[in-house]
Amino acid sequence: MADQRQPTVIADNANIVYRIYGSVAPGANSPLASLKRIMTGKKSAAVREVHAVKGVSFVAYKGEAIGLIGTNGSGKSTLLRAIAGLLPVERGGGIYAAGQPSLLGVNAALMNDLSGERNVELGCLAMGMSPAEVKEQAPGIIEFSGINDRGDFSSLPMKTYSSGMAARLRFSIAAAKKHDVLLIDEALATGDAKFRKRSEQRVRDLRKEAGTVFLVSHSEQSIRDTCERTIWLESGVIRADGLTDDVLKEYETYVNK
Amino acid sequence: MAQTAVADSDTGPSLTELARSHGLTKAGRLPRLPEYTRHLWSYRHFIAAFANAKVSASLGSTKLGVVWQLLTPLINAGVYYLIFGVLINTKQDVDNFIAYLCAGVFIFGFTQSVVQAGSQSITANIALIRALHFPRASLPIAVSLVEVRNMIASMIVLVAIVLFTGEPITFQWLLLIPALVLQTIFNTGLALFVARLISKITDIRQLIPYILRIWMYGSAVLYPVTFFAERIHGWQLALVESNPMLIYIELVRHALMENVELATSAPLLWLQAAIWTVLVGFGGYVYFWRGEKGYGRG
After folding, report:
1. How many domains, chain A?
2. Where is the ABC transporter domain (chain A) (predicted)?
3. A233 vs B contacts (CB less than 8 Å)
């Protein structure tokens, strides 16, 4: 049955490990401790490994919208980044995708010293648009973000924006492009109610054009509204993978325990 | 339907085969070098915009803005003139010591700032790298472009100093352009090299100020190049005189000034400069490309 559908994203025993430098317990970085480490040839305590995603496997098909749920720090965002190819997967496994999946996140970093307009230009170029496309799209992006609703804010540096305005602008930039595989990280939760309505509509439009959508969210309502299938990640391991209603029921009993 | 990860990993090989049979590509796969280069070329507008943005961001909070690009080298030259020209008053047997000194300071400063900024180009932009998909080499190359702008400003100051101190304008001045082009390619390779090295071994960043200082003393910036030949011989001298920065500095002095004593003949210097440029430019690019997929890990 699975063979008749076109797979777009396949994760095969994917392991993702973060290496963090310099986060050591007090005392472990003292000269004496360092000397001891060098003498005994032990691995530096200054490098800690965080095994964020542990042996995850799944197949996503064309036309599916998949919700990713799990408590904070369960590895949802990390998994999305690995699908986008932004984080490397450890040896022995892999993630395969059709085309180039794009990550639509609220934390896409921009330059705070520059004006909103320049950030729109820079963000679009970084997504691989040509200068002509950028010129064509920029007014629409600024209008969609609504930052100019109260005067000309787009020519002011981004550091003068409120956090909601900055998040709206970032979402508008990221949503300006069409994608084969769309990865959405909590993007629906940005801005005020008015903007949320507009952004949900935009995500639905993008979904129609995209082959497959992954949505990370803590809002069960937006998962229920958009996704028919849900994967529940807990401590980097898949706890459940199936129909949204079934998985959410299981998840609720787990959280309310 | 609940499935556990353990059960899934048993079907491992067949999943990989399924991916292959449907023509899916591995996420985070390293592209081949020509493919990577083409991809990088298609991002040239991003590189230029990023370099411009960096300049405006760093000068945006100052009142004088772009004027600082000219003021910084002027002040730099003024400090060295005060110390070496007035306080110590060394002439060091060089006809036009001030111009000689400034050429060294500016040309070395060009490479120095590329190394300093390049070493942070990955680590400082980790959020951008984790959010968006673009060839990572864009970042060190943009850093190198920013410094080219600063270098052009300091070359204007240098030419003014050289003229002011009484050097004649000759056709040899045209040699300044190829010398700076070679140095720019060399710098870009170096920026790519340190960017990957420091994203992997952060400890080296602590050593960079000392490495740069030793490199400066070995590049005949503050004293004439004949200083080395008078003191060391044999392989030690050969080692010092094969220093790429010493070579680039000598080429610029040779281009702008009359009666400069060179370590070796000018054609030999050009050959050495070209070899260093190809070696470091290409080597740094390949070294950076090999690590392309690991930069997001941080």
Report:
1. 1
2. 35-257
3. none
By the 8 A CB rule, do B147 and B141 touch?
Answer: no
Distance between B142 CA and the closest CA of chain A, angstroms: 13
Domain of residue A74 covers 64-92+100-255
Dist. CA B156–CA B175, nearest whole Å: 15
The answer to whether A240 contacts B16, with C-beta atoms less than 8 Å apart, is no
Domain CATH for A178? 3.40.50.300
Which pLDDT belongs to residue B152? 93
Judged by CB atoms closer than 8 Å, whether chains meet at B297 and A95 is answered as: no
- How far apart CA A123 and CA B49 sit, in angstroms, is 10
Is B134's CB within 8 Å of A128's CB? yes
Size of interface A-B (CB pairs under 8 A): 172
Length, in residues, of chain B:
298
**A33 shares contact with chain B (CB less than 8 Å):** no
Condensed to tens digits (0 to 9), the pLDDT of residues A108-129 reads 567 778 888 888 888 888 888 8
CA distance B63 to B80: 26
Cβ contact (<8 Å) for A21 and B202? Answer: yes
Contact A128 B22 (CB under 8 A): no
Assess if residue A187 is contained within a domain: yes
Note whether residue A52 is domain-resident: no
Domain ranges (residues) in chain B = 32-297
> Whole-angstrom Cα distance, residue A66 to residue A241?
10
Q: Cβ contact (<8 Å) for A96 and B19?
A: yes
Residue type, B142: A
- Could you say which of B15, B23, B132 has the minimum Cβ distance to residue A126? B132
Question: A94-97 and A7-21: which strand pairing?
Answer: antiparallel
CB B36 within 8 A of CB B135: yes
**Residue A88 domain flag:** yes
Q: Is A237 on the interface with B (CB under 8 A)?
A: yes
- Cβ-contact A10, A60 below 8 angstroms: yes
Q: Is residue A36 part of a domain?
A: no
Distance separating alpha carbons of residues A148 and A6, to the nearest angstrom: 42
Q: What is the C-alpha to C-alpha distance for residues A120 and B245, in angstroms, rounded to an integer?
A: 39
User: From CA B251, how far away is CA B266, in angstroms rounded?
Assistant: 7
pLDDT tens, B71-95?
888 898 888 878 877 787 766 667 7
pLDDT tens digits, one per residue of B155-203: 998 999 899 888 888 888 999 999 999 999 999 999 999 999 998 888 8
